[in-house]
Amino acid sequence: MGGGGVLFLVIGLVVFYSLRYRRKAGETDEPQQFHTHSGLEIGILAATTGVMGIFFFLTITTMLAVNDNPAPDRPPDLVIIGHQWWWEARYPNSGVVTANEIHIPSGKRLLVEVRSADVIHDWWVPELGRKMDMIPGTANHLWMEARHPGTFLGTCSEFCGTQHAWMRIQVIAQAPDAFAAWERAQLQKPTAVNGAVAAAGETLFQQKTCANCHAIAGTKANARIGPDLTHLGSRNTLLTGMLENTPENLTRWLDNPQQIKSGAHMPNFIFTKAEVEALVEYLEHLD
Ligand code: CUA
Predict the structure, then answer these.
(1) Is the beta carbon of 88 within 6 A of some atom in ligand 1?
(2) Could you give the 3-state DSSP secondary structure of residue 60?
(3) What is the ipTM of this complex?
(4) Which among 214, 206, 182, 199 has a CA at the least distance from the CA of 281?
(5) What would be the CATH architecture of the domain defined by 78-175?
(6) 131 lines ligand 1 (CB under 6 A)
(7) Per CATH, which fold does 196-284 belong to?
(8) Please, what is the angle between helix 247-255 and helix 273-284, to 10°?
(9) Nearest CA to ligand 1 atom 1
(10) 253 near 159, Cβ under 8 Å?
(11) What rounded mean pLDDT belongs to the chain?
(12) Is the model's pLDDT at 236 over the cut of 80?
């Protein structure tokens, strides 16, 4: 809106002055020329500097107000690591590691450390605090607080490659009791593998290359290259918010990852139909 107003003002003035001062019939001389007008030039410079200065001041004071003491001398409550193209969340106090759906306790001001595993990403959930770049090799800090339970959405706000637009953020704020229960559950081995198909899926997961990149708590899979899949069945979405978490969508993903999320680091393993079925049965029951 504001940009449109400026556009119309500028174009309007250009049209107005072109018509107002056009050469009229019978005029042959050059119009009167003006070269300098110190008062006007100093005035324009001072006015623009003043306006910029006011916005600069407001920006800096607001940034400091929402993020005072950005790096206190204590460990963070939560570490969030941006990857191409998903989020890793670590809870240093409990040792929980999860991906993409980030649970936090409501009513608590959390010190969050943000990092990157590859390129520059930018963390931004507007309702929970300021945005913060995730720079490779550096840890940045911000304060995050959800005043009440709920799901808060955000996105990666720095272009980070082909799937940047699908780097959605979901923060699930829970009442402290519910959060504590969630955290305890995350540390438990997912429910026992039930049935022959799921058992085949588990074997496949551990023996084929899945376990080389992914972790599932309580099993031998503990790699940190791809998202942690412990309790995958309890998540609402797959692929950083791209798809609803259903067996059909997980099947589509395992069938051909690049068709769904081109450029993702998940290779196509060319599984057979039975293998995909077994993996889906196993993974969707990790709740
Ligand atoms: Cu990550 Cu854009």
Answers:
(1) no
(2) helix
(3) 0.98
(4) 199
(5) Sandwich (2.60)
(6) no
(7) Immunoglobulin-like (2.60.40)
(8) 140
(9) 121
(10) no
(11) 88
(12) yes
